[in-house]
Amino acid sequence: MTKRTKFTGITRRRVLESGTGLATMAALGFPAIVETANAQSKFDWKRFKGEKVEVSLTKSPRGDVLQANEKEFEELTGMKVGSEQIPEQQHRQKVVIEFTSGRPSFDVLTISLHVQKRLVAKGKWMEDLRPFLADASLTAPDFDLSDFGKAGLDYSTQSDGRLDTFPLNIDYWVLYWNKELFQQKGVPYPKTMDEIVSAAAKIQDPAKGIYGFTSRGLKNANVPVWTSWLLGQGMETVDSNGKMQTDTPQAIWAAELYKKLNKDYAAPGTIGYNWNECQTTFSQGRAAMWLDGIGFAPPLEDPTKSRIVGKVGYGIVPPGPKAQHSAMFGDGIGIAAGSKKKGQAYFYCQWATNKLNQYRLLQTGSGAPPRNSPYQNPEILAKSKFGKEWFDCMLGSAKISRPGLPVIVPVTEFRDVFGVALTNMIGGADPASELRKATEQFKPILDKSETG
Amino acid sequence: MAGASATAAAPSVPVVAGPAAGRGYKRRYWPFALPATIVIVAVIVFPWVFTLYMSAHEWRIGSAREYVGFDNFLRLAADQRFIESIWHTFYFTALAVVLPIIFGTAAAIVFHRKFPFRGVLRATFVMPMMATPVAVALVWTMMFHPQLGVLNYLLTSIGLPPQSWVYSVETVIPTLVLVEVWHWTPLVMLIVLGGLAALPTEPYEAAHIDGANAWHAFRHITLPLVWPFIMVAIIIRTIDALKAFDTIFVITQGGPGTASETINLFLYLQAFAFYNMGYASAVVVVFFAIIVVLSLLLLHTRQRSKWI
Question: At what angle do helices B133-144 and B150-157 cross, to 10 degrees?
Fold first, then answer.
């Protein structure tokens, strides 16, 4: 008979068979060891035994991983979990409406840091996690906040120092490139943003259905492409004082680069492309380069969906004229301020972002964990379907990452207004006048968003 | 027997049909109308009054509410994007009504005749109507892909140039209408087919004796007689096309740019993406006014086309 550990349901034989080993278990804060380690501490996972916590997750592979392993949390704490996953757009709407009502139906929620960070701060809708972290009776000794990378923690931290969420996943923007197409033309991986244009020009062959570049053209979705180029000027769209920098010479330079690549070197129809059309185009070997989030990589290495398995290069976004940065987007998980079960919710947040769950994200290709430990695990490279280049690209991007969207309340309107401007550029409009018009249109919205 | 005595006593009671009796009748029966009144007030009257109230306020969810009078309506009148969305709505509606009506009527005439496998073919023809709009939209999105979609593959394989479909400002609305036509022509066909089945045969026999050909019979007998049914189809299709949201949202999200942004999509953005509830309420009021005018126009036309 195989013996099961008390909390996880993982058998000793399965652990041995998996080859994970004791070192890995310790590194991941394996619950059985945690149980022993916690025996002497004030912390008790069973403190809220018999209670229930409601969790509202954004529909994503991260949500899938958490829901698939929820039983582990229930066994660990003796609590029950009621969780739901809601598609991203609808989840954002639900969160706003429920918080505005003053009585949210959930205790724990995930938010998109790149869209909702400032909104939840302004509304004071989420609990500051710092007092919880400081309470030894509530925080597991092995939670290890220092294991989180600086970029992820900074992203979760509000301008006044509040830690409204633990970072759950960070998506870094990278430059996917088709090694086969590059080799055929004898073109090296671009070393600068300008070289992206020259590489695209050399590889482009419309007669064969091959295009030099692909990226989002659909309004709203297309804004991070432009902001990625702008980061090459060492600049974000809104500075730390809330001043818009969207019609500066640097922003116009980034918009011209956006226009050139999407108009001259992308496939016809790119004006309506979201990430999924770009992914399909790239995965079918029709585009030499694709700028987008690293989280979209799994189908590229799936033989049932991709014609370029094993030929994909994962490149850190090349430097621009003044800087090299990777645009960063991410999710965080935290406690609803209106919750009556804050301690229970905090337990769930700890579990959701513990080392083991973060490792699972990386192992299954469900996301890029903000913790450092999953990447240091010797097992991960052997078990992952991605090669060393993918990991190097992710870690390299993490080191130079900056937010890809401004940390403001009306992020969606920002994306809409500037998204339309960028779409117009693909249609032939002048970048400078489009950006000036969009800036003029958005400025009063931004000014008003911080009042009232 | 109580019943018998009551019946016997009845003639002696003077029957007075006056205001007092009427009021008594009303007093006895008004509670029966109460549930319906409550429901109508709760689900129709109150939302409308509240929407009107909200349209006079500047209110972004999460911020304080501020009374602005008619400012939202004045902003709308100057909002180029809103005005364009009205034009997109009319353009889309006109095509999405006229084309299914023409094709649906033609299909009904074909299926009204007897021919082998008519039943099977008719059942096949109505199948698109049974599909879920969102699923239909997703499938069409894949088919429209400029490089990898099946539509361009078919065009290029017969020597025609590939098209941009929904990925071009110029062709996006006609392409969305194509989906609507595919989806809803069967509905028009069913309605008109019902009308054709109810037509009398005598006028055709008389026309045949008088030497009328097939076109004359269609133009001067079939069309006038079946017109009330076509009007029903036009009204249903107009309502459907005006409120179209799911197909457009899934396929283009109003893009490229704002080229396929109809009033509904504009409204959705204002209310549920920007949380600009006051402004969105003003859009609802204007949209309602447009619908009322169109409805009156259609009802007036229908009255004139009554089958006498």
Answer: 40
Per-chain mean pLDDT for chain A: 89
Mapped onto helix, strand or coil, the DSSP state of residue B17 is: coil
The domain that holds B186 is classified in CATH as 1.10.3720.10
> Which domains does chain A show, CATH number per domain?
12-171+329-391 (3.40.190.10), 172-327+402-449 (3.40.190.10)
Alpha carbon of A219 to those of A120, A249, B270: distances in Å? Answer: 25, 22, 15
- Contacts with B269 from chain A: Cβ below 8 Å: 416
B275 contacts on A by Cβ (under 8 Å): 96
Closest by CA to A267, choosing from A207, A325, A323, A310, is A207
Nearest CA to CA, how far is B83 from chain A (Å)? Answer: 16
Query: At residue B2, does pLDDT exceed 80?
Result: no
Please tell me the pTM assigned to this model. Answer: 0.83
The residue range of the domain holding B220 is 88-304
pLDDT one-digit tens code per residue, B84-112: 999 999 999 999 999 999 999 999 999 99
Across the interface, do A452 and B169 touch by the CB < 8 Å criterion? no
* Residue of B84, B155, B166, B167 to mutate, interface with A, max A Cβ within 10 Å: B167
Contact B253 A268 (CB under 8 A): no
A281:B147 CB<8 A? yes
For A288-307, write each residue's pLDDT tens digit.
Answer: 999 999 988 888 998 999 99
Reduced to 3 states (helix: H, G, I; strand: E, B; else coil), residue A331 is strand
Closest approach of chain A CAs to the CA of B119, in angstroms?
Answer: 40
B17 found inside a domain: no
